[in-house]
Amino acid sequence: MLIALIARDKTGALQIRKDTREAHLAYLQSTGVVSQAGPLIVDGDMAGSLVILDVADMAAAEDWAANDPYAKAGLFDSVELIEWKKVI
C-alpha cells in the first residue's frame, strides 16, 4: 500500500533539518520502503517533507514515521499519513 507522508517543519527549525539531514537520508535509503521523497519548499527554503512509502499497512507507515531521524529530532510541527494511489 502506498502512503503519502506530509510533514511540515516547526517554525525556525531549519537548522535542525540541516543538522539531521544526513541521518534522515541514510534512513530513507536503508529502510527499503521509500518510493519517492523530497523536501517541501517555502520561500526558497526547505520547510517540510513529502515521502511516498510502499508499506504493508498504515501501522508500518506510522512506525516508519516515528523512527525517522527528523521526527526523533523534533523537526516537525505536523505529520500526516494518507493512503495514496499512483496514477502517473
From TrEMBL:
<dbReference type="InterPro" id="IPR005545">
    <property type="entry name" value="YCII"/>
</dbReference>
<feature type="domain" description="YCII-related">
    <location>
        <begin position="1"/>
        <end position="85"/>
    </location>
</feature>
<dbReference type="Pfam" id="PF03795">
    <property type="entry name" value="YCII"/>
</dbReference>
<dbReference type="InterPro" id="IPR051807">
    <property type="entry name" value="Sec-metab_biosynth-assoc"/>
</dbReference>
<protein>
    <submittedName>
        <fullName>YciI family protein</fullName>
    </submittedName>
</protein>
<comment type="similarity">
    <text>Belongs to the YciI family.</text>
</comment>
<dbReference type="InterPro" id="IPR011008">
    <property type="entry name" value="Dimeric_a/b-barrel"/>
</dbReference>
